[in-house]
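Board work, copied verbatim: DUF4440 domain-containing protein
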Amino acid sequence: MTLNELRTAFRQQLEQGDRDKAKALLADYSEFTPYLAVGNAVLASAEGDHPLAARMIGVADTAYPVAGEKPEPEDAAELAKVHAAAVEALGESAFADYRADGALWEGDFRTSMV
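↓ predict structure ↓
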């Protein structure tokens, strides 16, 4: 599966409300996790789904260090834009809650791989 195919499948699972299947996809293709999180954060923000965008920021926050990587400058800039839009839409407290939930998603599928 290519990154674009994975991104599409992941997004479909989230839209259908199947968080377990979405996490399973991430577990199967964990090498793409940081990039998938950034792409889906941007997409969710563009669609006005700020709770999902904040969750995807949380996934990225955890996935990059686990992969031993840092966001490329372009990805960091995109995450900053999504962060600002989500905080504006949700408020700082709700954003922090959704972001923390997203960080747990990353941890959930990482530990399920062991």
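The chain has one domain: 3-112.
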